[in-house]
Write a structure and sequence with these properties.
The chain has 443 residues and is of the alpha/beta class. Strand 8 and strand 9 form a beta hairpin. A seven-stranded mixed beta sheet has the order 3-2-1-4-7-11-12, sandwiched between helices. Strands 5-6-10 form a three-stranded antiparallel beta sheet, covered by helices on one side. A two-stranded antiparallel sheet has the order 8-9. The longest helix has 42 residues. The radius of gyration is 28 Å and the shape is globular. Helix content is 53%, strand content 11%.
Length: 443
């Protein structure tokens, strides 16, 4: 197995040089790296969870510092820390339950003691897991043999009792790492299938003869629209090109290849297109009120909905998305058009936009806006230092406040913006929100 430090340094270089495209790929590789860190971490007999937490935090701080704008890195680091805490709590609760059974069952038969111990330890472990996160079938099955493997017997001497306690500590240490790695594997699987989980909900949100407006390119949006097409939904798609990178061109070509009726528009035409659709709809409704006659097909044809992807979803329900998205959200609000955001659970960030450790934006190269040859003509060589007469600002992201969002669709279902903080709280521990600075030495 490669040395962990080599893997960490290689991933740090990729983050710094922005060689990893997309939040999903970044989240997956982060989880895989942390799994390797946990696997190769040697834990002591006492405070095993604290040792794992310190190891993950030490690596996580470096990863976040390498690319602060990619919030998916910090999200996965905090998710893994939360997994360690809940698995440790589950094992501790099960162990305490076993001790309680022994104290209560002193006057009972050995067979009754064994049955009671197995049921109590398994039940308590399963209950503690269910209150923290939904348990897998494998996790539930693992709890029962562990409890059954250590039946209650009377102490036969100090030596045997000491050996038993030592074996229990070693077994618990191995089981903690095993359970944490299994949970991280489940997290990686969730990241891999998040697009499919979101796409399965498309038929519930895209209706017959609707007009869908989106901006730029998003794999989540692409699979969502294609899933609706496969369910025999007939609709049109307007794609804003997403200048200056023009990622919308790629999405439009892909949609046409998949057989969807697609119209490519400029970003500045978003207001005009939304107003035109709603104007036709208003005229048809007015015609029905005046004449009592209306073609329902034409009315339904002009129902519009904005469906977009996101770079990150903050704890307050705000969205960090490609530049230009706030303009689209404002246009949707102005004309009462639903604004729907698709985001996998790895994009849910437990931080708020005002937190000092959150970097909401970064500037891209001016060459995307202005050719270097044209830019050289704007240099003031007469001043002696060649200072430019024009400054080019090319931000990467926009911030969309929660009041402009109608609905979030994640791999766990649809949620209102006001519910996002509760959903996010299920994935993270309060002790792990701020990773930089002083580390905790225990659980």
């Amino acid at each position: 197995m490669p040395d962990t430090q080599v893997l960490v340094n290689d991933f740090l270089n990729k983050l710094k040089k922005r060689k990893i495209e997309g939040s999903q790929a970044t989240a997956k590789q982060t989880a895989e790296l942390l799994r390797s860190v946990i696997s190769q971490t040697r834990v002591p007999y006492t405070n095993q969870a604290g040792a794992l937490i310190d190891s993950v935090k030490a690596v996580g701080e470096r990863l976040i510092a390498a690319n602060p704008v990619e919030l998916a890195v910090g999200n996965i680091v905090r998710r893994v820390l939360h997994i360690i805490r809940e698995e440790d709590l589950s094992l501790t609760t099960a162990a305490m339950a076993g001790l309680n059974v022994v104290a209560v069952s002193d006057d009972e038969d050995d067979a009754d003691q064994d049955d009671c111990q197995v049921l109590s330890a398994a039940a308590v472990a399963a209950a503690s897991r269910s209150t923290l996160r939904p348990p897998s079938l494998q996790t539930l099955l693992e709890d029962v043999p562990d409890s059954a493997a250590i039946p209650h017997t009377s102490s036969s001497g100090g030596d045997s009792e000491g050996k038993s306690k030592s074996a229990d500590k070693s077994s618990r240490s191995r089981k903690l790492k095993h359970d944490v790695i299994e949970a991280v594997n489940e997290l990686i699987q969730d990241i891999n299938t998040c697009h499919e989980q979101i796409a399965e909900q498309a038929v519930e949100h895209i209706h017959q003869n609707e007009v869908i407006l989106t901006l730029g390119s998003s794999r989540t949006v692409l699979q969502f629209l294609c899933a609706a097409k496969e369910k025999k939904r007939s609709f049109r798609v307007f794609v804003a090109e997403g200048a200056p990178r023009y990622q919308g061109h790629l999405l439009a070509k892909e949609l046409v290849t998949r057989g969807l009726q697609t119209t490519l528009i400029t970003d500045s035409a978003v207001f005009a297109m939304i107003s035109r659709v709603n104007m036709v709809c208003d005229v048809l409704i007015l015609s029905y009120l005046l004449t009592g006659f209306l073609h329902c097909f034409e009315l339904h044809l002009e129902n519009m909905k904005v469906i977009v992807g996101a770079h990150a979803v903050m704890a307050n329900g705000g969205v960090i998305a490609p530049v230009g998205m706030n303009m689209v959200a404002l246009a949707a609000q102005k004309h009462a058009v639903p604004f729907v955001v698709l985001a996998g659970s790895h994009k849910l960030c437990p931080l708020y936009p005002h937190n000092p450790e959150v970097l909401l934006n970064e500037l891209r190269s001016p060459s995307e806006l202005l050719d270097f040859g044209e830019f050289s003509d704007c240099m003031d060589f007469g001043s002696g230092n060649g200072a430019p007469l024009i400054h080019v600002v090319n931000p990467t992201f926009d911030y969309v406040p929660p009041k402009l969002v109608s609905l979030f669709i994640t791999d766990t279902g649809g949620h209102n913006p006001s519910y996002m903080y509760r959903l996010i709280a299920d994935y993270y521990s309060a002790d792990d929100l701020v990773l930089q600075g002083r580390r905790t030495s225990g659980n």
